[in-house]
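User: Continuing from earlier, I have the next pair ready.

Assistant: Great, send them over.

User: Here they are, in order.

Assistant: Folding the first of the pair now:
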Amino acid sequence: MPKIKVPKKSPSLDMTPMVDLAFLLVTFFMLTTKFRPEEPVVVDMPSSVSSKILPENTLTITVDSAGRTFFNIDGQSVRRNLLTRIGEKYKIEFTEDELKKFSVMTTIGMPAEKLKAYLSAPDSERKKMDKATGGIPIDTLNNQLADWIVYGWTAAITDEAYAKKKESGNELRFAIKGDGGVDYTYIKRIIEIFQQNKVNRFNLITNLQATPTTE
């Protein structure tokens, strides 16, 4: 009995859905990606062997090599609330545009009397002001950093989303990010300000280096 030959057909694959999916993914990332604003100060942090990653929802004090102090806290609504409180303390009335601009910024190192001019300035002018600033005052006679810490802390824990953050273990953290070449007296002063305002637990941010091996 003769064998029946089954006709051979080359398999075909319709790539149209795959192409559509690729373009959908590209479109999604283009529409949802948010670029982090440029930091006004760059610090060369010391290294350590700790591999602990700093979580979100952090109040960070940055100290550059010249001892200038900068402030940052996470959350747009938190930052708006913070700036409003700072304005009330120093008798500064911020516009809606200035509040909105501040809410999407990152680190800031302006004394209170220059805040309004800084927020109303164009990006190119703000970069010049960042280079020329002496940072947020931390001396005993004009300790503005203490106000930033207290009002930032208050704004964070009174934010509507804070209860859920705390339930998930993401409560507000405090951190110091100091340049490796800064005089230690500046870091000591930041620690004193933290402790004077009942902040006794905080992280020191460092660069990760390889864990030393023992032979």
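And the other member of the pair:
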Amino acid sequence: MWALRVLPFALALAVVAPAQRTVSFATDDGGQICADVYGQGSRAVVLAHGGQFKKESWRNQALPLAAAGFRVLAIDLRGFGCSKGPGQEDFDTAPFEKDVLAAVRYLKANGAKTVSVVGGSFGGAAAGDASIKAPAGEIDRIVFLGAAPNLPADGLKSRALFIVAREDSNGSGLRLPGIRAQYERAPEPKQLIVLDGSAHAQFLFQTEQNARVMREMLRFLSAP
């Protein structure tokens, strides 16, 4: 690990890139989740995509996370890519939080000591709901990208970083007021970062905010 840290960043990415492999594992309700693995180590991060993405969309974020020493698991949520599970036909009611919990438990069963989650859009909502429903300590921390839990955030059992663009909106209006309301309900420790622009969730990585979002994620995930 020490040798990897002294390599130039681009070379470090080249070192971890070939380690990627695809795995699958079961959910507790009989679903089957596909995921891409990057890197290795006892600290792990699950990447949960938004509605317009799949697991492959995280590659450009997974590589620097792996280079920083994290084992990364980018998942397809049920009904996306090669993942499937009960209820996937109804996007509004599908139990996506079960897919996040299955990913967390897969990593812990394979040697991870701590597992955090980065979730974009509904993937972030699923991560929040998973934290609320799971035992304390199961999910160490969560990065919500343009997202918040569906359930009341005062039940969160994980440290939380909320990142949202000020003008991010959907058919119902701006997302920031609802996300801010959930942030205010969430227990400490927590942080809310409001960025300029209108990019939603993972689309932030396609803007000039990309470097800052990655920097804030790495800072939060790496903090003691």
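Worth noting for the second one:
The domain at 2-222 is CATH 3.40.50.1820 (Rossmann fold). The first strand starts at residue 21 and ends at 26.
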